[in-house]
Amino acid sequence: MRLRLAGAVLLSAAAYYVYLPLPSGVSEPWKLMLLDALFRSFMRASDVAHALGVCHRVHLLNQVVSWVEVIEARSCPAVLVTDSALGGVPTRVFQPKGGKKLKRGVIYFHGGGWALGSGRMRSYDRLCRKMAEDLDAVVMSVDYRLAPEAVFPDQYHDALAASRAFLSAQVLERYGIDPGRVCVSGDSAGGNLAAAVAQEVNETNARLTISRSHTASYTKTHT
């Protein structure tokens, strides 16, 4: 009798912990509730580990994410997938097979608050693989450094260095990318990096254009 009572109490406590009020239109609500409960459990465990001085809370979360999500680079019949480094920054490149000779180019930055995640995670691997195949584009997913080891603006500097390397004439030629059809993209914190990189690259190109224009005008005037 006591065993049944204890089981009922534990089951009720577990149901209370897992249950999360959701809109009626959400598909597979229990799957979402279980994932939310699992994530909250890892968050609390990381807080305890941090308080005990075992490790930084972010390190434990990243270890869990790496163990569950990070996968090796694997090509498929439609997309060639390779791990490399551009501008000194680890990247995963997705190159579609076949299609047009000159490809589009996509630079992608993953989210995670500049502290979590990786471009080698299963979810981002699938996303970039689909973009490469559907858009006939060479996609570079950037693994910029993360907090707490890297602090602002290290993440931005990594994103910018990888982007500039990707936009270099040698890399564009290597992957057969049309230089006039390259974009930057990202989700969450990666979207922030994408906006900052786009602005900086655009301003740099504008300064170079103005400088070349002034040089050409000066040369023409003095010859």
UniProtKB/TrEMBL annotation:
Residues 106-205 form the Alpha/beta hydrolase fold-3 domain. Keywords: Hydrolase. The keyword Hydrolase applies. It holds the Pfam family Abhydrolase_3. The keyword Membrane does not apply. One of its GO terms (molecular function) is hydrolase activity. Gene3D superfamilies: alpha/beta hydrolase (3.40.50.1820). It comes from the Eukaryota. The active site is at 188. InterPro entries: AB_hydrolase_3 (IPR013094), AB_hydrolase_fold (IPR029058), GDXG_lipolytic_enzyme (IPR050300), Lipase_GDXG_put_SER_AS (IPR033140). Belongs to the 'GDXG' lipolytic enzyme family. This is Neutral cholesterol ester hydrolase 1-like. The lineage of its organism: Eukaryota, Metazoa, Chordata, Craniata, Vertebrata.
